[in-house]
Each structure stands twice: as structure tokens, then as C-alpha cells.
What does this fold into?
Amino acid sequence: MGDKPRILGIGIATMDIYCHQRRMYPGGNEYNIAYNAGLLGADAGFMGVFADDMAGSILEQTLLDAGIDTSHSHHEKGSSGYALVDLKDGDRVFLDWNKKGVTDLFPFTFTEEEITYIKTYDIACISWGARVDKSRMKKLAGAGVPICYDFYDNFTAEDIDSISPYIKFAFFSCSHMSEEETKNILAACVRLGVRIAVGTRGGEPAIACDGSRFYTQEVFRIKAKDTMGAGDSYISAFLMNYLSAEADESFTAEDKITASLKKAAEFAAAVVVKDGSLGVGYDVDPDDLSKIINL
It folds into this structure.
């Protein structure tokens, strides 16, 4: 298996505030990926923007307590990202969120020193919501950074065309699409240069494509308590397993993908029975958010 994979999340740190529980849970796409990768045994890091409010301190400290490297995150005056969340039958429903948190206002430009740091990792995970525009994706890829990109469920054909040439792994949320539509998107992505493209489909089997064939993986059936962060946990576990096996010549390329899809499904099933994205929560008064967030 060799050395531990090194997985970096670049993007969002946010606080999910569950008004009905009077609890708040650290989260955000790349934040969750970094935390879960560390939980799974990777050397994990997170590059994000932390605000100078109590929520920002809690977000960073939660990662530090989990052994995640935040040394190249930025600290800015402003408001932590947050979302007000309700649960309906285990599915998250966003009631409101702030559109001008520090991640929105102070996006990374990626200095030479930062790129040198990023290149110490096997993979950098970025998503549609990370506020890393296409020119910066191109800058990272041109510097030799391997990128995993999460397109979410609101991707366009133009997104696929413009981003795919710069990334190694692609993830899509395709629960609103048919199997054939999902396969067409994954195949298009791989034709543009992606090594492996994966589409998760809610309760239906996930599909992956590597250019030579399609793979499917059934969902592990479990009663979900909270689906928040399920997709991020899926990405963490897939990458952890794939990167661990990548250099092992005793496995075929197909075996590596098949095993990684299974590990991803297993781990996502373990996460949806936790509260919040990570199962880490703090008490909060949702009627007095100004105590913890610079509103």
C-alpha cells in the first residue's frame, strides 16, 4: 500500500445551523473531504478562508483537533459562511444562507509559494462552490497539480467542456438524470481528459467511467438520519482507496476502481447516520447568531 495518501481540500468552510435542534455543525464540501480523509488515515490538509468571528475559530479548531493541516488557510475580517438547515425525512433542506462570507469575498489567487505547498499533496479537491474560477483551475493544472473536481448537480455542458481538460477525477450528482444521461456525461468528461468520472444517483447505483468501460456500484441500504455531507464523504473514501492502490501493480485498473466505488458507498452509508456532515456539533441559539458570526 505504500505511504499514506496526501489529500488536500481547497474551498469552503461553513457552519450548518440546525434551528430545530439548536445545534450547529462544521461543514463545507472541501472541509468535509479533508476531515473525512484524515479520519480514513490520509495525511490531510485544508486551504480555506476563516473569518475573525467565533464560528471561524470553531471551524479551524475542529480541523486542528482532527489532525488536519490548516497552515495555508487565510484569515480575514468578515463573516463565516453559514446555512440555516432543516431536516425532512433525513434529507437536508436549506432555509437560508449568507452569500457574502469570507470565502466569497476573498477567493484564493494561488501564489507560487501556495502552489509549491499544494504540490506536496497527491490530489487537490475543489468544487463548483469553492470560488476557484476556471482561470485559476488552469493555473493549478498548468503547474502540475492533480485536481479532483465536484460539479454538484447544477453543472452545464459548458462547465464540463471548460473544466474537464484540467482535472484528473470528476464527481457529479446525477440523481435527477437517467442512467443513459449519466453515462453520456461521464463519457464526455473522460474524452476531454479526465481519468475517472463518477456520477452518484441518490438511491440508485453510482456509475463510473474510465474511458474503457462503465462501472456500477449499488448503494448500501441504510436508514439515513442526515444526508448532509454524504457526497463529500463518498469522494474522500473513493480517493483514499484509489490513491492507496494506484501504485500497486498486483491490482488491475478495473479492480482499483471497483474496490474504490465499494469503499465509497460503504463510507457514505456510515456518514448518513451521523448528525451534520461529520457528527461534530456545538450548541447554538439560532435567534442570536451575532454572538458567533459577524453578521
Q: What stands out?
A: The chain has a mean pLDDT of 89.
